[in-house]
Design goal:
mainly alpha, Rna Polymerase Sigma Factor, Chain: A, Arc Repressor Mutant, subunit A, 2 domains, about 70% helix, about 0% strand, Sigma-70 family RNA polymerase sigma factor, transcription
Length: about 190
């Protein structure tokens, strides 16, 4: 005998709604909480529609990326938070099904054996030389520019996050990055 799905308590719904609203304000901790509270249910939706665990896992990454980007559009009171999230999961899974149906299947005789993952020695040498040249060009920047470029590109921070971290206006950070990237480009072109 199958059991009816358990209904969430008002406290659980309030916690989920709070996490969703905070995610809309780019709160990473709230996003983590939101994932913990909803991933099992949303995975079940994706699995049912996609039909395979691997496909559902792929779709789930797209689902949470969409949630991160669109959480600010959620309006408490218009829809329950789980309904809003389930709609995103359902739509992403359906999109995946449609795309999968439109992918042409390759004939087994047309499939090429994959190339080795190991790069050729000359490619490794060229990459090493580019890395050394880039490092040299980075050291030629001013301290503020060097720190901004390293933090943005190697640390994954956005310009807005960088500006906030440095305590400067966003426009100033954008100008600093633009000048740094122009200087890096010029330096790298001179090394070719």
């Amino acid at each position: 005998m199958s059991r009816a799905p358990r209904r969430s308590t008002p406290e659980e719904r309030a916690a989920l709604e709070s996490a969703l609203v905070a995610t809309g304000e780019e709160d990473r901790s709230a996003f983590s909480t939101l994932y913990r509270l909803t991933s099992a249910k949303l995975f079940g939706i994706c699995l049912r529609i996609c039909g395979s665990k691997a496909a559902a896992e792929d779709v789930m990454s797209d689902v949470y990326l969409t949630i991160w980007k669109r959480a600010g559009a959620y309006q408490p009171g218009r829809a329950s938070p789980i309904s809003w999230l389930a709609t995103i999961a359902r739509n992403r899974a359906i999109d995946w099904r449609r795309a999968a149906a439109n992918r042409p299947m390759a004939d087994i005789d047309d499939v090429v054996e994959p190339a080795s993952d190991t790069p050729a020695a000359d490619d490794m040498i060229a990459e090493s030389q580019r890395d050394a040249a880039l490092e040299e060009c980075l050291r030629g920047l001013g301290d503020d520019q060097q720190r901004a470029v390293r933090t943005a590109f190697f640390g994954g921070l956005t310009y807005a996050e960088l500006a906030d971290k440095e305590g400067i206006p966003l426009g100033t950070m954008k100008s600093r990055m633009r000048r740094a990237l122009i200087a890096l480009k010029s330096c790298m072109e001179g090394k070719e």
